[in-house]
Amino acid sequence: MLLIPLPAWLALGILQLPLGSAQECLSRQQALSAVRQMQKLLAAQEAAHLRGTRGLRNQLSILQSHLQRQPTKRNDTCPQLAVPLNGRMLGRSVRVGHDVHFVCDSGFQLVGSETRSCRHNRTWSGTQPFCRSMDDCSSNPCANSGTCVDGDQSYTCLCPPGWSGPSCQSPIYSYWVTLSNASFSRQPRCAEGRSGSRRCSCDTGFQLRAGGVCQDVDECLLYQSSPQTRICLHDCLNLPGSYRCLCPPGYLLHADRNACEDVNECAGKQHNCTQGDLCINTFGGHRCVRPKCPPPRHNTSYVKTSAFQCERNPCPMESRACLLAATSISFHYLPLQANRTVPRVLFKMSTTRFVGDSLRFAITGGRGQGVFSVRRSDRQTGELLLTSPVAGPATLEVELEMSEFSRKVLLGKHIFKVTVFVSPYVF
Ligand SMILES: *[C@@H]1O[C@H](CO)[C@@H](O)[C@H](O)[C@H]1NC(C)=O
Ligand SMILES: *[C@@H]1O[C@H](CO)[C@@H](O)[C@H](O)[C@H]1NC(C)=O
Ligand SMILES: *[C@@H]1O[C@H](CO)[C@@H](O)[C@H](O)[C@H]1NC(C)=O
Ligand SMILES: *[C@@H]1O[C@H](CO)[C@@H](O)[C@H](O)[C@H]1NC(C)=O
Ligand SMILES: *[C@@H]1O[C@H](CO)[C@@H](O)[C@H](O)[C@H]1NC(C)=O
Ligand SMILES: *[C@@H]1O[C@H](CO)[C@@H](O)[C@H](O)[C@H]1NC(C)=O
Predict the structure, then answer these.
(1) Same domain, 284 and 369
(2) CA dist., res. 78 & res. 96, Å (int)
(3) Protein residue whose Cα sits closest to atom 10 of ligand 6
(4) Which ligand 2 atom minimizes the distance to the CA of 125?
(5) How many domains in the chain?
(6) Which candidate in 221, 302, 355, 396 could, as Cys together with 368 as Cys, close a disulfide (CB 3.0–4.6 Å)?
(7) Whether 400 contacts 349, CB under 8 Å
(8) Confidence of residue 369 (pLDDT cuts 50, 70, 90)
(9) Global pTM?
(10) Where in the numbering of this chain does the Sushi domain appear (predicted)?
């Protein structure tokens, strides 16, 4: 006998079951079939429930999107955007709160905003982007007839003989050796002695090593690291059987192989000073300068009398400011190697027509004043001294004044504007 308790809500579904009288018992077969029926019923009920919930949820979300879309019925869009030439725009929506993105075709670079958002005041954030060609050769970056090869992100210059550097700007002054055998190890030359002994030797610059191989001697490693045995002034390159000294750009390897000599770029056509500039050769390079007279001020004006000199125009009567101003100004550019020993006379100054009774010299201004001093060397001559070593590269400026007096009355004043270009190297 099996008694099955049934929940009230299932009662309707099992009316056909023979549950009529209380004393009646179900057979095992009947009970099983009743259970199966109930399981089916339960599954059907469950599915119906699910469908109901799903339908409700759908209706809710439709309602929600309706509510959200409400404002767009009023005009809540930003103006249409232009698609950049050679690029694409990602994102179509121009509604408030939406973003659009921009990308460029390969070979082009995006300039401007990558992403723009439609703001609440119906304007776009950022700026309209455009796609710029990445053809880096378009600006002709290779000097000295170098050939420009456009690359992925940058360009490469193929330099003509005699030039090197990323944009073929550096002349090659080192010499090239042709190597008959570019190998750092060679077989020794051996000879059989009469007694059956073997004698082997290596080419110059090679040493016999274990295993009977001639190994190149690294002269750079051996000598260059110590100041006492240094073989190259600047840099050393080991070669099979020998070595080569290297100089930085702007220097020429001297014939004796270990020295670097400055190249005078101003003498050749190796400078890039524009017309009107003066080319000043420095150790390892050059500078382009353009000396300028001071502008007119306090009744005082100057006129350029030569490339490096200005003279005061005649003063208006009774203009004291003009009379006290310098009668002339000259410009001086001095190249200097790094770390020169001190004290060192850099510059001497004197006057050609000395009519007064005394000359006074003074430093009156300029950057880098701390490393200079001025002194008299004789009655008519003054000297600019370097008083402490300067580690280059550096540009130092100093202004000197030479005043001529007669019975303590100022006769005239000359200003020397001195610029010192210090090399990055001690040569
Ligand atoms: C909505 O405004 C934008 C710019 O504010 C305009 O370009 C567009 O034509 C307007 N659309 C309607 C339907 O008014
Ligand atoms: C729109 O709003 C932004 C800030 O969200 C502001 O910078 C911009 O000036 C506004 N533009 C106009 C036209 O009001
Ligand atoms: C050309 O001038 C610039 C500075 O004006 C300098 O940096 C560059 O090295 C110069 N080029 C050469 C070949 O000297
Ligand atoms: C350089 O020398 C090695 C060893 O003596 C030899 O095997 C090689 O063929 C030589 N190379 C050239 C280019 O002569
Ligand atoms: C300029 O010169 C005039 C006379 O020519 C004079 O009166 C005036 O004070 C001068 N100004 C200065 C600043 O010296
Ligand atoms: C110059 O001297 C300073 C200090 O002794 C040193 O640090 C620097 O490397 C030197 N410069 C050169 C180019 O030798």
Answers:
(1) yes
(2) 7
(3) 391
(4) 3
(5) 3
(6) 396
(7) yes
(8) low
(9) 0.54
(10) 76-133
Q: DSSP states of 44-88 as a string? A: HHHHHHHHHHHHHHHHHHHHHHHHHHHHHHS--BPPP-PPPTTEE
Q: What is the CATH number of the domain that holds 205?
A: 2.10.25
Helix (H, G, I), strand (E, B) or coil at 273: coil
Q: Which two tokens stand for residue 363?
A: 């430093």
- Our answer on whether the CB atom of 123 is closer than 6 Å to any ligand 2 atom is yes
Q: Confirm whether 251 is domain-assigned.
A: yes
Domain harbouring 129, CATH code: 2.10.70.10
Cα separation, 13 vs 30, whole angstroms? 16
- Using the atom order of ligand 4, give the atom closest to the CA of residue 180: 14
Q: Mutation test of ligand 6: which of 230, 247, 339 has the most ligand atoms closer than 8 Å to its C-beta?
A: 339
Length of the chain: 427
User: Do 3 and 35 form a contact (C-beta atoms < 8 A)?
Assistant: no
Domain extent at residue 100: 87-133
User: What CA–CA distances, in Å, run from 136 to 109, 130, 377, 381?
Assistant: 11, 17, 57, 56
For residue 159, being part of any structural domain is answered with no
As a whole number of angstroms, the distance between CA 285 and CA 262 comes to 8
Q: Relative to the alpha carbon of 75, which ligand is closest?
A: 1
- Kindly indicate the confidence band of residue 16, based on its pLDDT and cuts at 50, 70 and 90: very low
Which atom of ligand 6 is nearest the CA belonging to 338? Answer: 13
Q: For residues 215 and 200, what is the distance between their CA atoms, to the nearest angstrom?
A: 13
Judge if 91 and 201 occupy the same domain.
Answer: no
Please state, in angstroms and rounded to a whole number, the distance separating the CA atoms of residues 209 and 225: 23
CA 307 to chain centre: 36
Comparing C-alpha atoms, which of 423, 372, 378 is closest to residue 399? 372
CA 308 to chain CA centroid, nearest Å: 35
pLDDT digits (tens, 9 = 90+) for 162-205: 777 788 877 665 433 334 455 788 888 877 766 667 777 888 89
Residue linked to tokens 């001093």: 373
Mean pLDDT for the stretch of residues 297-322: 93
Q: What is the pLDDT of residue 182?
A: 54
